[in-house]
Amino acid sequence: MLERILPRSVASAELLVFPEDLTAHPAEEHLIAKAVEKRRRDFIGARHCARLALEQLGEQPVAIGKGERGMPLFPRGIVGSLTHCDGYRAAAMAHSLRFRSVGIDAEPHDTLPEGVLDSVSLPAEREWLSDTPGEGLHLDRLLFCAKEATYKAWFPLTLRWLGFEDAHITFEIDSRTDDSGSGTFHTKLLVPGSAKDGGAALTEFDGLWLIADGLILTAIAHG
């Protein structure tokens, strides 16, 4: 599913069923030595997907460490993003000569828990939600998913926190049925976006979204 919302030059891999014989990379085991089983499976599964994506790019399937605020540490010359939710783990990777950053997120296609929306959205975003018929789509969770993908695209370039209130996201809906849909989204960054790579300051991101098979997926490939 993820490849449907990523450019062809971005490699991706997904894991819907966790293989019972899948274990942590020996160089990563210390990062999850004290983690509960669910956390271990999410960590192992997402990084397994990352190595599959690295191989698609012609790179070695190396260990992936953990940096500031949990940021995955990919090999030099590679940008990417990991995500996981119940029943799903995935990774998207690209060469940094082609893209400055990649951000993906996956969420269950369900409404946000009560009280969460106000803390993760701006008034203009809540107005859009109230004015847009859902028709079976949980657009509140879609908004949250797009905010998460935005953060994952932002942080590796800036090494700075980005709050939910620091990004205004608007959506276009290209197709919709009772339980699936797809479209685009645009993120306007509301805080200064100077980047540590010396490139152009970040002011916005554009992404794609997909709702299918009980999942919401969002993806940004920022060139």
Automatic annotation (TrEMBL):
Gene3D superfamilies: 4'-phosphopantetheinyl transferase domain (3.90.470.20). One of its GO terms (molecular function) is holo-[acyl-carrier-protein] synthase activity. GO terms for cellular component: enterobactin synthetase complex; plasma membrane. GO terms for biological process: enterobactin biosynthetic process. Mg(2+) binds at D105, A106, E107. Residues 101-174 form the 4'-phosphopantetheinyl transferase domain. CoA binds at R39, R47, T83, H84, D105, E148, K152, L162. InterPro entries: 4-PPantetheinyl_Trfase_dom, 4-PPantetheinyl_Trfase_dom_sf, 4PPT_N, Enbac_synth_compD-like, P-Pant_transferase. Keywords: Magnesium, Metal-binding, Transferase. Its cofactor is Mg(2+). Residues 27-94 form the 4'-phosphopantetheinyl transferase N-terminal domain. NCBIfam families: 4PPT_Npt (NF042923). This is 4'-phosphopantetheinyl transferase EntD. It comes from Nocardia alba. The lineage of its organism: Bacteria, Bacillati, Actinomycetota, Actinomycetes, Mycobacteriales.
